[in-house]
Amino acid sequence: MALKEIKWIENQLNKLQSPDLDLNVWKASACLMLDSIFGTDNFRSKQIEALSNKFNSWSLRDATGNESYEERNQRMAAEILQSAIDELEMMGLPKKDNQVEKLLKELLAIIFDELKGNQVKKLRHIVTADLPTDDKKRQLSDILREAGGGDSILINLMLHPAIEKMLKDH
Description:
Layout: H1 3-15, H2 23-38, H3 43-50, H4 57-62, H5 69-91, H6 99-114, H7 117-128, H8 133-146, H9 151-158, H10 161-169
Helix pairs in contact: 1-2, 1-5, 2-3, 6-9, 7-8
């Protein structure tokens, strides 16, 4: 279970009760926290960012007579964070894309961009087939030769920003 993350969110919930709450500071902190737990494209951060502490004709119209506009925003923020806690308790931490996996997907995309559709199908079949490694190497070599020797694939792989950075660092 995600006990650290739940504790972190509960701490953020407690800050909502502070009499000297600065909503803009709280929103920035809450969004950073939610982004680190759920990823940068999570809808909770977007909901928190949408909270407004400005009084204008729209906010006055939307505010109920039973609570102030600030209280409504605080209640909404608390509900957003509580839903995050509920999700973590029920589902656990979300799976985040591993950086290495992301890089490998990008490199594979470079290879696929240089091959024709039929060659991509052959490549997938060869790599996933239950064949000895030597047979796979020979068949993959045939596909690369068919694609023009594989020079453009190798060049594009070597020019990938992550590879370039690794070569500069070492």
